[in-house]
């Protein structure tokens, strides 16, 4: 399977060492706009909203919603890559993506709503199919034992490496085929 175009790779390779979350907004926007071109019926829509879990700091969630004729078909949320090693950051990312899936699922006309949680280029793939079960299944916290509710291996694919690129392209192909079936 072909690599990403040089224009996309250059944006990702321009990310500085020790990057912040917003250093990845441009590269992800470039990749998503390549996969869902503006001339198509897909639209890449950046979204941001205030995370209301903290009173001490203003924390925003930034995501991309990919719409097909104003219907959500894919969600991509971006987090700073340095936080991937932190179990609490993964847990928070997992909770946030599940909430967005739940919020947008009623508007999705496809049999499956896809979502991607990204820490830099490391991605975890989520999906909610008919029946409203989100995969991967949620790991509930144990009230007395330390529980990794969002294991590191969920983010084992790097979108710039062969396996991650193949999985990402496969997901996009599935979305495109499902959208063709709507017509």
TrEMBL record:
The name this protein goes by in its record: Uncharacterized protein
């Amino acid at each position: 399977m072909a690599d990403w175009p040089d224009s996309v790779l250059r944006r990702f390779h321009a990310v500085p060492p020790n990057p912040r979350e917003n250093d990845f907004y441009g590269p992800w926007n470039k990749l998503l706009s390549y996969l869902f071109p503006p001339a198509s019926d897909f639209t890449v829509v950046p979204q941001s909203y205030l995370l209301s879990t903290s009173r001490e700091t203003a924390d925003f969630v930034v995501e991309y919603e990919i719409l097909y004729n104003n219907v959500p078909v894919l969600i991509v949320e971006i987090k700073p890559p340095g936080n991937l090693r932190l179990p609490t950051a993964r847990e928070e990312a997992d909770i946030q993506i599940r909430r967005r899936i739940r919020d947008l699922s009623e508007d999705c006309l496809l049999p499956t709503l896809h979502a991607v949680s990204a820490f830099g280029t490391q991605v975890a793939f989520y999906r909610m199919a008919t029946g409203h079960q989100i995969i991967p299944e949620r790991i509930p916290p144990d009230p007395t034992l330390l529980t990794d509710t969002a294991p590191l291996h969920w983010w084992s694919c790097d979108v710039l490496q062969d396996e991650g690129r193949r999985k990402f392209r496969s997901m996009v192909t599935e979305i495109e085929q499902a959208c063709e079936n709507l017509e």
